[in-house]
Amino acid sequence: MSNAKVKAYAQALFAIAQAEGAADAISNELYAVARAYESSDELRNVLSDATIPSERRLQVVEQLIGTRVNRATVQIVSMIVASGQVRELPAVFDEVIALSSAGNNQDLAEVRSAVALTDDQQTRLAAALSKATGKTVNLKVVVDPSVIGGLVATVGDKVIDDTVRTRLDNLKTRI
Amino acid sequence: MTAEIAELEAKAEAEIAAARGRGSDELRNEISVLASRATPIVVAATLNDQIHKDLVENFISKVGAGR
Q: Does the beta carbon of A159 lie under 8 angstroms from any beta carbon of chain B?
């Protein structure tokens, strides 16, 4: 799917979220679904397997998130799965959260950490990133064991990387 | 004849030395590849909760201070 198509999809979905009167909540839920999709091979395989009947894949969506999120979120995820565009789900939903952040005059700050961060750490991290970038940030923390330790933050085009993985990569290159 | 034998011996020695060098380089490369694969696993296993916490706090401090 082209970048323009991803943006068009995202704008349409964000309009649905706005119409539901819960744009922020639905955008946050879609962001969480995108991260779950990225991190689970099993989920990706099931949702993208065209040999599994569409009804069965939609049942999986319903079972996974049906009772835990807004109804509109379930419907949006189901729509993406049914349309055969599930591989684009992370890109589309990331664009939705970017639209939601922009609507609140915020920039999306995605932080990857090897471990979960406490509420206090997240509050101080958001403040530090806002100070460093000069922008109010909408902080999203993704637990990603592949970073090994430390954090990497992406705010727009700016990447602040202080992860153990990158340090090891740099060391490897030097050796 | 003696000169020819000496020449052949010298050639053989040179080839053995070259082969030894190649073997050593290949071994060194293999060790390097294995070490680079093992290091992240070993490092990850040695990071305890306190180290993770320190890494996070260090990041927040550095970013907040404008790095």
A: no
